[in-house]
Amino acid sequence: MIQVAHSPDADDLFMYYAIVFGWVRSALGLEFKNVALDIESLNVATMRGEYDVSAISFGAYPFVREHFALLRTGVSFGQGYGPKLIKKQTTHLKRNFKVALSGEHTTNAIIFKIAYPEARVVYKNFLEIEGAVLSGEVDAGVLIHESILNFDTCLVVEREIWDIWRELCGKELPLPLGGMALRRSIPLNKAIDIESTLTQAVSVATKNKKMLSKMLLERNVIRVNAQELETYLDLYANDDSVCLSLAQKEGIDKLFALGYEAGIYDALIRCEDYLIPTQYQEMRFS
Q1: SS3 of residue 97 by DSSP
Q2: Residue 37: closest CA among 16, 12, 7, 13
Q3: What is the pTM for the complete model shown?
């Protein structure tokens, strides 16, 4: 039984549930069991080696690179959009403003801390951030997942993380938010099969978006309504989620470089060096 951990947000559920519904199957007959946790809990769990396969923030991957490989599928990127730094309309942010972030190792936290080194950071579950800003517990917060679609009218967007990312990059690259990592101790033939199965699941899901969305809504496993679900999936679970592109790899490498330059990571790495080496499977059957 292969444990697959993912977040409870709509794009992760959408990309995985083609397996739950039996639309795709492992070529090796592997069986999958899923668990849903918030993304920072998944980052920490991956650092502890708790699951065979897990969704992970790209910002967290360098910390687990020795024990987990990156998968090419199930990825979420921003392209002109992404997490939002929000505050109350009447709030003026000082240089050392207090901000709520969704987790120390999330991509948005890495980028935020590079851009706002003097901010006072507290970490909260992403579902609690809007309330913390509204109550005045913090001056601002970074919203992620479906929270970016529908937040209180008393709040305004101070800055888009996408805009910060573009300034840091010096050009427009896809903003790497979430991917998937697989335990290195899994035999290579099984690892390749797992990646292939998950790739098929994402591909089938995107090709049957209306049907799968309807099934998820009917089962009440999604936190948003039908219109919000469609909007959210267009952003984060689409054809670009099926397999990493060259531009997406460049975006990941830029994130890793920025984190290394800021002293967050202890080594400068390239994502291409940490993908599952599928060429061995090709050689085996050549």
Answers
A1: coil
A2: 7
A3: 0.91
